[in-house]
UniProtKB/TrEMBL annotation:
Keyword Cell membrane attached: yes
Superkingdom assignment: Bacteria
TM segment ranges: none
Annotated protein name in UniProt: ABC transporter ATP-binding protein
A molecular function GO annotation: ATP binding
Biological source species: Streptomyces lomondensis
Subcellular location per the Swiss-Prot or TrEMBL entry: Cell membrane
Mode of membrane association: Peripheral membrane protein
PANTHER family to which the protein is assigned, alphabetical: ENERGY-COUPLING FACTOR TRANSPORTER ATP-BINDING PROTEIN ECFA2 (PTHR43553:SF27), HEAVY METAL TRANSPORTER (PTHR43553)
Length: 551
């Protein structure tokens, strides 16, 4: 159905091809996962299937890409629209109408389908993706995850034979991600739809893939094979594979079920681990450079906070205190109010009732130039913070705005994005790389309170590990961190505390281990594999085992 024949893509002004030696085939009716570190060209490969590369992006494509027998060099995207449906990393860039129902119908209108056919397909898609209650909602009022589901639905309604998906679950909560993946499975197995998908959160999708195409490094040819074959050599792999490598299991497990069947000996070793190592089962300890003599002064506080937006009550009577050195993970379904809570703390949303304080400041009454030194927000859409033409210019502006010594921002960029040059344009970075650049810009001011909205969206495992290291360091220095995330593995790795939201209300607030271990949706893979023992991460398991067990 999809065939790459020795394909390379070189963009204008680039010294080297972004991808080269791409040669593989996606058979009809298979789900193929495109994996690899951030910045290796996965989005470029996907764009070549829909014709966006090079017809829209520019650059030179050598070799040949065919989809259902059509050569994408001679067929422009509009001439492939009846065959290929594409959802990119940024749902907002896809939308052309104002409401959910209109967006689902738009693609079919463009293809000239009959009104009765369009009506039936819209209803089917609303049910498939759990969007029926949102059908009349303006898209501007939806959460990031809700927008992602609408974007997927809008390409499903024309019934394309090929779906190309770039990070389709990145903005979805675990339950919603499972729903979307179940829909994709149904399309593949029941309708014979061919799916090519790029995804960094391999723990969500690896078990559904028929094949994995790995791009191991920029410009390197792909490694193609079954999930277990590719994960054995891949530089990126999910926690279940990391645990399998640690335990020496062969073949490597791809699912929690497979791992649990092999984990009896490992659970026995951990049960008998020395007492000192057993303490690692708890969530990370808060450390600070200086211990306060009394109770710490909160860096942020919400009291009876309620927020109503577009006649929808997004938050209801929220009470939350944030102390120095504390990392809090806000979790919950899409639309639960996580982003609204963060926006309230940074002054972008005015309370309908209740109070918000950051230090002694009231955010929505404080000038931005003063607020930036008290609280910083890295939004879901990093482009909202990036406006310069080069990385160097972004960093220089961040240093100036924060009153920081020259080079402060650039040092953070080097830590988060090794290898990115000063002359790189932010738009030429991948989604994950732009997110890391935005984080560096915000961190330049070293605000006591740092807010992050889905900070691992678009990040590979290595980049996520670097981010976790930076956040741990900031917490150790006394910075308070609040992150809204669907990434249960990140929460397990760095959060001292988890706050669960549902319908704008706090339904759980406590230590990470206490909250996530009992949750089938928010428990990390290691917890599920080693239950009833309360381990959260592979790093905890590695530290708890005797050295000879991990050599």
């Amino acid at each position: 159905m999809i065939r790459f024949e020795d394909v390379s893509v070189t963009y204008e002004g680039a010294a080297e091809p972004t991808v080269q030696g791409i040669d593989f085939e996606v058979p009809e009716g298979e789900l193929v996962l495109l994996a690899g570190p951030s910045g290796v060209g996965k989005s470029t490969v996907l764009g070549a299937v829909s014709g966006l590369v090079p017809h829209f992006t520019g650059g030179t494509l050598r070799g040949r890409v065919t989809v259902a027998g059509r050569d994408t060099r001679t067929h422009k995207p509009r001439e492939l629209a009846d065959v290929v449906g594409t959802v990119g990393q940024d749902p907002l860039s896809h939308f052309v109408t104002d409401t959910v129902e209109d967006e689902l119908a738009y693609g079919m209108e463009s293809l000239g389908l009959a009104p009765d056919v369009m009506r039936r397909r819209v209803e089917e898609t609303l049910d498939l993706l759990g969007l029926a209650d949102l059908r009349a909602r303006p898209i501007a009022t939806l959460s990031g995850g809700q927008r992602q589901r609408v974007a997927i639905g809008s390409v499903l309604t024309p019934h394309p034979s090929v779906l190309v998906l770039d990070e389709p679950t990145s903005a979805l909560d675990p339950a919603a991600a499972e729903e979307v993946l179940a829909v994709l499975q149904r399309l593949v197995h029941d309708l014979g739809t061919t799916v090519l998908m790029a995804e960094h959160r391999l723990e969500r999708v690896i078990q559904y893939a028929d094949q994995v195409v790995l791009l191991p490094s920029p410009g390197a040819p792909p490694v193609v094979g079954t999930p277990s074959e590719v994960m054995a050599v891949s530089p990126v792999y999910p926690p279940v594979v990391a645990l399998g490598r640690l335990a020496g299991w062969t073949p490597l497990p791809m699912t929690v079920r497979d791992a649990r069947r092999r984990a009896a000996d490992l659970r026995h070793q951990l049960e008998n681990a020395p007492k000192g190592r057993g303490e690692l089962r708890d969530q990370p300890h808060k450390t600070r450079t200086r211990q306060p003599s009394g109770p710490p002064t909160p860096v942020g506080a919400l009291h009876s906070l309620s927020v109503t937006r577009a006649r929808i009550q997004a938050l209801r009577a929220i009470d939350l205190t944030i102390t120095p050195g504390e990392t809090i993970a806000l979790m919950g379904r899409n639309g639960a109010g996580k982003s609204t809570l963060l926006n309230s703390l940074v002054g972008l949303v005015k309370p309908s009732s209740g109070t918000v304080r950051v230090g002694e400041a009231v955010p929505h009454h404080t000038a931005p130039k003063d607020l930036v030194r008290k609280v910083g927000l890295v939004p879901q859409e990093p482009r909202d913070l990036l406006y310069a033409d080069t990385v160097a210019a972004e960093c220089a502006a961040a240093d100036q705005d924060a009153g920081a010594p020259p080079g402060t921002c650039r040092g953070l960029v080097s830590e988060l994005l090794p290898g990115v040059t000063d002359t790189t344009h932010p738009r030429d970075l991948s989604e994950g790389q732009r997110l890391a650049l935005a984080l560096a810009v915000v961190l330049t001011a070293r605000p006591p309170l740092l807010l992050l909205d889905e900070p691992t969206r678009g990040l590979d495992y290595a980049a996520k590990a670097r981010l976790a290291g930076v956040l741990r360091g900031l917490a150790a220095e006394g910075h308070a961190i609040v992150l809204a995330t669907h990434d249960v593995e990140l929460a397990a790795e760095i959060a001292h505390r988890v706050v669960l939201l549902a319908e704008g209300e706090v339904i759980a607030d406590g230590p990470t281990a206490d909250v996530v271990v009992s949750s089938p949706s928010f428990a990390p893979q290691v917890t599920k594999i080693l239950a009833p023992q309360h381990w959260l991460t592979v790093s905890q398991v590695r530290a708890a085992l005797p050295p000879e067990a991990t050599s």
